[in-house]
Specification:
The longest helix is centred in the middle third of the chain and has 42 residues. This protein is about 65% helix and about 10% strand. With about 725 residues, the protein is an alpha+beta fold. A hairpin with a 5-residue loop joins β3 and β4. It has 23 helices and twelve strands. The chain starts with 6 loop residues before the first helix and ends in a 5-residue tail after the last helix. α1 crosses α10, α1 crosses α11 and α10 packs antiparallel against α19. The chain folds into three domains: about 450 residues, no CATH class; about 120 residues, 2-Layer Sandwich (Alpha-Beta Plaits); about 80 residues, Alpha-Beta Plaits.
């Protein structure tokens, strides 16, 4: 019988038949991209620039008029319980200071023993030598940064501890994917084997995902030749690539296996799986990619590049699931076919007899109860969200194994926490007398611990003040101080003069980023919700389905935000995830989480609601279709969610605080989305809405394009009995 097959169906069959050609293309592409990345990669960076922000304008002004003060610094911190001024200790420190002054790119080194400006603690046991570079932290060559590390190592002794802090050493502490990736793969293998109880379908999603991960890394590291990619972008991309790569492949393998058990040949099963589950994967992946690319519209370059890198990784995962996986099924599908022949009717368990089917009917009988309880759970988890504070965590949150954390602790204990993030007040066009007056006004401001004497450029038209807050760089009081200086103190001190003032430095830059992101969040949220609404409306030809999905996704994301705030900002259970101390939520995290989670939520929404829609088209009974749709998808959704959760939770083991926040937030969101939302809240609301689930105004029905997730009507997807074959 001739039947009209979809393009994806034809592609799935082609890749299955021509498997060796497809595998060869992937092999050549992988080798080529790997060699390209090795040749052109420039590595990741630690710089967070923000065009138009006051802190960035100040840097640009300094580069123009005071270049030797436009770069970043390193703090060499000395701790000597026997006293800094002991002869041997002092000699070691002076040798290091002299050596640091000779490092290329270093324009000044302030000795602790200088007559003015020397930094020695009151008990004379801790001292700081500040090394000023002419370049930004990420522009300092690795060899020059290593030279300072070598000097520090040579100065260390039993009586003298030497640690490095500040932006330049922090830029050298970069971490790529670590053992968390291995743990995630092991956990995923266990979950997949429990689901399939066979080696071949267990291995296929892992092979596909790992191939996509490797090629995805080659792509994003190649990007660093043209863009400044943040140091934690590879970890975030790895987290997403591994999670969605396994999940997307799982959906397709499960559908392939289901089709084989229903009596289709292996080639037919591959075509049907790509045409049905593959289309759902393409849709869900598309939402994730578009959401991540939307980060580029926010006017914050480093956030946009993280979004682009993550989108590239997800795109490769989708491509692997749709092209590499059917070829792998062509190589290994025979094992699944043989397993199907051994499977007897007695071993098949009808979905109508499963616990998921009975749960569906329980929800149908008491939808208001399940709606109320599940909504209450999500609202309670979201309560901490009301207290969310955005900012940038300081080095006090780094692992104690790092030199930057040990330097931070020495400085905070001896000089106060604010010394770890001094503010830079730049005065353009100020005379010596004006600079002195401004210094007095700044010093009198509450929460200011100290202010340095003005450092003036050679032309005498620009001066810089170093302002040390009394509070840590990440504290809310420090952010308030920056705003007070900018809005009140400096405008008053320079009134009726031509002096221009800027508050800059790494701490101020982090505050500017948090302020910029906070102002852009409503726009970004509206963009992602709007795109997702339109895409779901086209797929399901309904107004209520996308509206319900948007509201429920917001509840899931709110719960994730709430847990992240409770753990990292309030400190509840922080020791369980290795959080060093409480602090603000990383400024770009809500935006990134929203982009990713809205797309991932579409995964389960499309997978569940498309099955319910299939059943509804067959039975025209809303209650029966919801119960059957839940029963036929719950086991796969649960397994997919469990894999996502363990993958994301494994990244909590990472040393970088922002990666911990990201991993925990994603894990919580997937947990509540796949359980409370998809298995309880969605069936309850769909039962209550009844026929309104599928309502679409006639005028709208005529103008929107027709896209079917159910498989374009080919016979393979025609009966619910075939589609409801048991996966376990």
């Amino acid at each position: 019988m001739n039947e009209q097959r979809s393009m994806l169906d034809r592609w799935g069959r082609f890749a299955f038949r021509k498997r060796w050609y497809v595998l060869a293309v992937w092999l050549v592409a992988g080798i080529g991209l790997g060699l390209t990345a090795r040749a052109i990669s420039q590595g990741t960076t630690n710089t967070l620039t923000l065009p138009g922000a006051e802190s960035q304008v100040a840097v640009d002004e300094l580069k123009s008029s005071f270049p030797e003060r436009s770069g970043d610094y390193a703090d060499v911190v000395f701790s000597a319980p026997g006293g800094i001024e002991a002869p041997d200790t002092r000699a070691a420190i002076e040798t290091l200071v002299d050596g640091a002054a000779g490092i290329p790119g270093v324009v000044a080194v302030s000795s602790p023993f200088a007559p003015t400006g020397g930094l020695i603690s009151e008990d004379r046991t801790v001292a700081i030598a500040r090394v000023q570079y002419s370049q930004g932290a990420d522009d300092v060559p690795a060899a020059d940064a290593k030279a300072l590390e070598t000097l520090a190592e040579e100065a260390r002794s039993e009586s003298l501890a030497v640690e490095l802090g500040g932006p330049v050493p922090a830029a050298q502490e970069r971490e790529g994917p670590n053992e968390s990736t291995v743990l995630a793969i092991i956990a995923a293998l266990i979950i997949l084997y429990i689901l399939f109880r066979a080696v071949t379908p267990t291995a296929l999603p892992i092979v596909s995902a790992m191939t996509g991960l490797a090629i995805g890394f080659a792509v994003i590291y190649s990007m660093t030749a043209a863009v400044d990619l943040s140091k934690f972008a590879p970890n975030i991309a790895a987290m997403l690539g591994l999670g969605v790569g396994i999940d997307y492949s799982l959906f397709i393998v499960a559908r392939f296996r289901e089709n084989v058990f229903s009596g289709h040949s292996a080639e037919e099963a591959a075509g049907i799986a790509i045409a049905t589950a593959g289309k759902s994967v393409a849709f869900a992946g598309g939402v994730v990619i578009v959401s991540l690319l939307g980060l580029g519209l926010m006017g914050i370059p480093f956030v946009g590049w993280i979004g682009l890198a993550s989108a590239a990784m997800v795109a490769v995962a989708v491509l692997a699931a749709l092209t590499l996986l059917p070829a792998l099924l062509g190589v290994t599908g025979g094992a699944i076919v043989r397993a199907a022949r051994r499977r007897t009717d007695a071993q098949r368990v009808a979905h109508e007899e499963s616990g998921w089917y009975h749960l569906g009917h329980a929800i149908m009988r008491r939808p208001y109860v399940f709606l109320g309880v599940s909504t209450l759970i999500l609202l309670v988890l979201s309560i901490p969200l009301l207290d969310m504070r955005l900012g940038s965590a300081d080095a006090g949150n780094n692992p104690t194994s790092t030199t930057t954390r040990r330097a931070y602790d020495y400085i905070a204990g001896a000089f106060g926490p604010g010394m770890n993030g001094p503010l830079q007040v730049v005065l353009s066009g100020a005379s010596a007398e004006q600079a002195a007056g401004i210094r007095e006004a700044v010093a009198a401001t509450p929460n200011v611990a100290s202010v340095s004497a003005p450092i003036v450029n050679a032309a005498g038209d620009m001066a810089v003040l170093s302002v040390v807050p009394a509070t840590s760089p990440q504290s809310a009081e420090t952010a308030d101080l920056v705003h007070t200086l900018r809005n009140d103190v400096l405008p008053t001190a320079t009134e009726n003069s031509a002096v221009e003032t800027y508050v800059a430095g790494a701490t101020a830059r982090g505050i500017d980023i948090a302020d910029r992101i906070s102002s852009r969040l409503p726009l970004f949220f509206s963009l992602v919700i709007g795109i997702s609404f339109l895409m779901l409306m086209v797929v399901f030809r309904s107004i209520m389905i996308p509206l319900k999905a948007a509201l429920m996704n917001l509840l899931s994301i709110g719960a994730a935000y709430g847990v992240v705030v409770a753990v990292f900002q309030w400190g509840w259970g922080g020791s369980l995830v290795g959080a060093g101390s409480t602090g603000p939520i990383e400024s770009f995290l809500p935006m990134m989480l929203f982009a990713v989670l809205f797309g991932l939520s579409m995964d389960y929404e499309v997978f569940l609601v498309s099955r319910i829609h299939e059943e509804y088209l067959s039975s025209k009974d809303n209650a029966v279709s919801v119960a059957r749709g839940l029963a036929s998808t719950a086991s796969v959704i649960t397994a997919a969610a469990a894999i996502m959760i363990v993958v994301f939770l494994s990244f909590v083991l990472n040393d970088q605080r922002v990666v911990k926040e990201f991993g925990l937030g994603l894990a919580v969101a997937v947990l509540v989305d796949a359980t409370v939302v998809r298995l309880l809240l969605v069936p309850a609301t769909m039962e209550l809405m009844g026929e309104w689930n599928w309502w679409l105004p006639r005028w709208l029905d005529r103008i929107i394009p027709r896209i079917s997730i159910e498989g374009d009507g080919h016979p393979a997807a025609a009966t619910s009995e075939d589609r409801a074959a048991n996966l376990t």
